[in-house]
Design brief:
Layout lengths: L1 H10 L4 H5 L1 H9 L6 H15 L3 H12 L19 H15 L13 H9 L3 H24 L8 H8 L5 H9 L7 H19 L5 H13 L13
Helix pairs in contact: 1-7, 3-4, 8-9, 8-10
């Protein structure tokens, strides 16, 4: 499904290639067989709005939106497992799922990064791809609501994905969940998270453990899976 590839590209960190190839993306959307004309036009409108900006401004806006705090994180398991140990096993299971499709991953994103997951779904038969969207539909709805709350144009990209999933979402519950949420991307909130991480870091060191050993133990599991990218050929 080329539509999922397009949205995957638009949800990635903006780069010069997106500006250079925007016409190709628009043509792919205009010939879409899975989006309605209205859905395709909505994504085209987003693309035109994005590329009307200076690239550096678009990059700064992206980082402010997706890299500060956790509420709008594009890491799917952030919204399911948080910091629990179940997250590690979920990563392993997802990597195995990719491997069963013959996909070799080699990029700097974790396997649950939404753009990467969408590109994986794009390689599947449409029925299976839609099933994969249904699996994450509640997360997509939550992200969409939070982005709308922040008046971000990126919310436009989630509407056709949710529509494609064609699964029941209790929008009232989503609205209630985010209604009283405190922003986690403010300087005060980010400072609090940093202080908490520092406390956890020193608590994990233990008596007699060197700084270097603690650093290696803390980050060894996080670095290895970050170099991931789908390199298989062909699109569905």
């Amino acid at each position: 499904m080329i539509e999922l590839v397009v949205i995957s590209r638009l949800l990635e960190y903006p780069d010069a290639a997106l500006w250079q190839h925007q016409q190709e993306l628009m043509e792919a959307l205009q010939s879409s067989t899975h989006f309605t004309p209205s859905q395709s036009q909505g994504v085209i409108d987003f693309l035109q709005q994005l590329t009307s900006q200076d690239l550096l401004d678009a990059q700064a806006n992206y980082s402010e939106l997706f890299d500060r705090g956790r509420a709008t994180s594009l890491l799917l398991f952030e919204h399911v497992h948080g910091e629990s140990r179940d997250r590690g096993q979920a990563m392993v299971d997802l990597l195995a799922q990719y491997a069963r499709q013959g996909l070799e991953l080699d990029s700097r994103e974790l396997p649950d990064h939404l753009p990467l997951y969408l590109e994986y779904l794009a390689q599947l038969p449409p029925a299976e791809a839609l099933g994969g969207l249904q699996d994450i539909a509640p997360i997509l709805a939550l992200l969409s609501a939070r982005l709308q709350q922040r008046e971000s144009h990126y919310a436009m990209l989630f509407t056709p994905l949710i529509d494609l999933a064609n699964t029941a979402i209790d929008q009232q519950k989503v609205a209630e969940k985010i209604a009283d949420e405190a922003r986690d991307d403010t300087p005060q909130a980010l400072d609090a998270v940093w202080e908490e991480e520092q406390v956890k870091f020193f608590a994990e060191q233990g008596c007699g453990e060197s700084d270097i050993t603690a650093h290696q133990r803390r980050f060894a599991g996080a670095v290895a899976p970050q170099y991931l990218n789908i390199t298989t050929g062909g699109q569905q």
